Structures are given as structure tokens and as C-alpha cells.
């Protein structure tokens, strides 16, 4: 309940006013909703109360902690109080370009497909009953997928993608690829299944978080070419000893003798060196019929 004084008169507003702010910081408007209102109802309130605003013309999704996207299914399980920040709800607005307003860009050159990779189905019987929204909304297949722990290496993943993209590779990074209205978990599952090279940034927490543990194990099961970038002093990490026991890694720094390395600061020269090594490993198999190392059958 909010109490307001206007012209010496007392007004009691039963429903609080919540601001709606875009991820970039732009204020989009406000709605009157209860703090315990589920996000799916908030979406309806925005539609009815903010008619004519940017949100009524474009698709969007809610963000938790200004970073984590909330899927449509999750909106019925989370309330305003779960994600509110500074009296505002943060949204990520997705702009859909039409031929009349899209910028003129050159047609992308067809990418070379890495020989030796294969596409395996990892769907279970549960997937047969799902609708095809996620499949119809999937992004184009990417050559490289970067897997990382957000708390440790969010910035590292961004700058590594930029560096690899500058070398001519197409790179999947979750924060850039998952579109509004698509189930977040399904999108990551599809991304791992459809990538050609899987590059995990192995920081101290990698493999200990639920999703990085699932991603690396799924990539291993599907026989993806895995090129780990290690930010650790010891290899392999204990929680992923089976997956990485025979896997060659790339060190994140060229100065291995420094005992006081700050893994949260990635020097430009070290970044470029890592990107170059990844590019060389990928290029090595682009024009060969030899199976990738991760596709060689293991002997148990």
C-alpha cells in the first residue's frame, strides 16, 4: 500500500506503480500492479495500460538481475517481487526488422563446414509432445559455441566472441542468440547440438554450476570437437575429470610462471593468442577427412 499527499488531501493507492525499463537503461513507462502479481499477468497489464508504447508494438521478455532471460513458461512461476530492481522491471526488447526498415547489409558468405562432425539427436520421447515453436525460432547454425560461467567469465566470453568473429568464424553466445518467446533451456540444448566446435571457458566454477555441467556433458555425449580454455592452475578440474582427462586445453595466459594471476582480467595479447590457437585447431580439420578427436570411440 502506498500513501500519497496531494493538495493536503490523503490518497491511499492500493496498487503500487512499477516502472518498466529497457536493458539499455531507457525508461519505457509504468504500470500499476501488485508486488505479488505473476509476470504473465504483468504482461497483460502492460498490454492494457501502456497502449501505444514500444512494448505494445514489439516483442520482449523480462530479465532477472538485468541479465537472466525469463521464458514464457517461467513467467507464471515468478512474481514482480522476484525480479524488481529499484522499483523497476527490466525488459529486453526485441526489434523485428522488415524489408522497409532493415539496413542494407551484404549477404554473408557461406561458411565452410568442418568435416568429421555429425548431427546426433538428443531428444527423448518427452519432446514428441512439444510444439514446434522452439524449432521454428532457432538461430542459424554456428561454427563455435562458447560455454562459460556468467559470474566468472561473462566479459571474457564477449571479447573472445569478438576476436573469433574478426577471424571469420560464426560464434554462438547465449546472451546474443536466445530470442524472446523461445524456451531458454531448449535453445541452449539446440545450440549445443547444432554447433560444430564447443569452447568452454574453464574457470574455477565451471562444471560446478548446473548449466555448465549439463552443457559440457551434452557436448561430450554428442561427440563435439571440444577445445577448452583453461583458467586453472591444475588440470583437469576435479568435477569434470572424466570429460577432460585426455583433452588438450589452451591456457588463457602466456605467463604461466605468474603465481598471482588475476583471472578476471584478460590481457589483450593473451586473448588474441588464445583466439589464434582456437582458429588454428579449427582450421586444421576444415579440409581433412580425419575424424575429430572427440569423435574417436573411447575404449573403456
TrEMBL record:
<protein>
    <recommendedName>
        <fullName>TIR domain-containing protein</fullName>
    </recommendedName>
</protein>
<dbReference type="GO" id="GO:0007165">
    <property type="term" value="P:signal transduction"/>
</dbReference>
<feature type="domain" description="TIR">
    <location>
        <begin position="140"/>
        <end position="278"/>
    </location>
</feature>
<dbReference type="InterPro" id="IPR000157">
    <property type="entry name" value="TIR_dom"/>
</dbReference>
<dbReference type="InterPro" id="IPR035897">
    <property type="entry name" value="Toll_tir_struct_dom_sf"/>
</dbReference>
<dbReference type="Pfam" id="PF13676">
    <property type="entry name" value="TIR_2"/>
</dbReference>
Amino acid at each position: 500500500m502506498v500513501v500519497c499527499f496531494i493538495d493536503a488531501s490523503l490518497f491511499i493507492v492500493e496498487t503500487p506503480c512499477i516502472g518498466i525499463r529497457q536493458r539499455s537503461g531507457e525508461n519505457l513507462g509504468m504500470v500499476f500492479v501488485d508486488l505479488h502479481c505473476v509476470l504473465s499477468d504483468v504482461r497483460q497489464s502492460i498490454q492494457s495500460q501502456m497502449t501505444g508504447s514500444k512494448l505494445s508494438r514489439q516483442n520482449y521478455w523480462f530479465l532477472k538481475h538485468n541479465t537472466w532471460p525469463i521464458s514464457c513458461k517461467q513467467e507464471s512461476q515468478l512474481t514482480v517481487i522476484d525480479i524488481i530492481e529499484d522499483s523497476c522491471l527490466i525488459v529486453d526488447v526485441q526489434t523485428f526488422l522488415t524489408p522497409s526498415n532493415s539496413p542494407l547489409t551484404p549477404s554473408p558468405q557461406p561458411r565452410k563446414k568442418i568435416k568429421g562432425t555429425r548431427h546426433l539427436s538428443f531428444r527423448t520421447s518427452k519432446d514428441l509432445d512439444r510444439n514446434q515453436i522452439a524449432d521454428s525460432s532457432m538461430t542459424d547454425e554456428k561454427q563455435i559455441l562458447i560455454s562459460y560461467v556468467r559470474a566468472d567469465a561473462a566479459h571474457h566470453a564477449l571479447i573472445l566472441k569478438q576476436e573469433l568473429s574478426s577471424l571469420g568464424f560464426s560464434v554462438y553466445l547465449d546472451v546474443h542468440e536466445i530470442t524472446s518467446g523461445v524456451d531458454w533451456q531448449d535453445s541452449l540444448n539446440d545450440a549445443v547440438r547444432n554447433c560444430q566446435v564447443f569452447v568452454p571457458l574453464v574457470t574455477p566454477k565451471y562444471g560446478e554450476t548446473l548449466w555448465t555441467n549439463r552443457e559440457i556433458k551434452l557436448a561430450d555425449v554428442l561427440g563435439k570437437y571440444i577445445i577448452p580454455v583453461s583458467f586453472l592452475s591444475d588440470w583437469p578440474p576435479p568435477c569434470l575429470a572424466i570429460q577432460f582427462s585426455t583433452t588438450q586445453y589452451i591456457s588463457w595466459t602466456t605467463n604461466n610462471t605468474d603465481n598471482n594471476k588475476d583471472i578476471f582480467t584478460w590481457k589483450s595479447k593473451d586473448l588474441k593468442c588464445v583466439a589464434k590457437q582456437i582458429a588454428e585447431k579449427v582450421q586444421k580439420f576444415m579440409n581433412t577427412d580425419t575424424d575429430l578427436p572427440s569423435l574417436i570411440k573411447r575404449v573403456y
